[in-house]
Amino acid sequence: MTFDRNRLGFGYGERAIYAADPWTTRGRLYPETASPTRSDFQRDRDRIVHTTAFRRLKHKTQVFIANDGDHYRTRLTHTIEVAQIARALARAMKLDEDLAEGVALVHDFGHTPFGHTGEDALDECLKPYGGFDHNAQSLRLVTKLERRYAEFDGINLTWESLEGLVKHNGPLMDREGKGTRGPVPQPILDYCALHDLEISSFASLEAQAAAIADDIAYNTHDIDDGLRSGYLTFEMLEEIPFLAGLMAEVRGLYPSLDPSRFTHEIMRRQITRMIEDVISVAQQRLEALKPQSAQDIRNADRMVIEFSDAMRETDKAIKGMLFTRIYRHPEIMRIRKGAADIVTDLYKAFMDDPKLMRKHHWYDHISELPEAAKARQVGDYLAGMTDTYAIATHRQLFDHTPDLR
């Protein structure tokens, strides 16, 4: 059966002149025949969803360990929420929705078990060998570690999707080659030597939409999970004028609402106001910039998709509250200590005896590698673990495993 590509709608409406164009993509590291039924960005998104890395997100911590309850966010549910917001922003600004969604879906692939705690512990273990960065690990997963296709390692995403993955928070180095947030992780430099992602420029608007969607999603939903856990109270939210205003609005409309519905009404308003703020700022900056192509966005001197100054202050206040009330709560810190010990113990055990990683497809040859290469493969194995697998493995290898309840 054959298709006439020109008669297929692909679900697209009008696209802005500065949106990424899937029909003129810069291509893939390994050239492939175009699909008759999907754009290249649609194929990227679909490949991301079908990876083992995507499935593992369901058992990786967002903030609360899975043992805390079934209704708390995991990396997977957080990722789906980010993708929904990114797609909404892309549609409102006439961008490529599939690219924005794909970048959102892949952005947390490189996270270790136990959230940022696991990342910090693994980074400390790998310090002598360049450290660990979850963004660089995401790139390693989609360009090397996923092994699904007959002709290449990784999933062979387009240049635009890889650029969005690596640069969604802005350029990694300035025009003089100096890292903008410290040294550029070596895995990113290594890949760029093969397939230059132009890490001194900004990413597409689609990637910028995914980045701000991440902030909106976790600010809102960490509040929701914090209220559910009891670490946050409505009285604490009153300390932030933006949230106090939302609560006053909901109380005025629904004076007798039960706490669960009250929370949801606050959260939905928070997401809406933040999205509307972002769109307003983007429209103003696009009007000033007058870009004629996606490349004009990359060459701009600032991000286009950001919060306004007022919303940025609100964002900062919310993050400060979450940091103090949840992320550094004594009980959370106790759990974090145990999670860090699990990651550190496993790293040391695998370095001492790589054969313990018998399910790892490289373990037969890992002992022959130089120390740095061996450490990186141990890091790959550990980073890929889910919370549940890391705990179960630790119990098999050690007499005592920290209680993360």
UniProtKB/TrEMBL annotation:
Keyword Hydrolase in the entry? The reply is yes
SMART domains the UniProt entry points to: HDc
Limits of the HD domain: 75-219
TM annotation in the entry: none
Q: Does the keyword Hydrolase apply?
A: yes
- Fetch the NCBIfam families from UniProt: dGTP_triPase, PRK01286.1-1, PRK01286.1-3
The protein's name in its UniProt record: Deoxyguanosinetriphosphate triphosphohydrolase-like protein
List the Gene Ontology MF annotations in alphabetical order. dGTPase activity
Stated family: Belongs to the dGTPase family. Type 2 subfamily.
Q: Which UniProt keywords apply?
A: Hydrolase
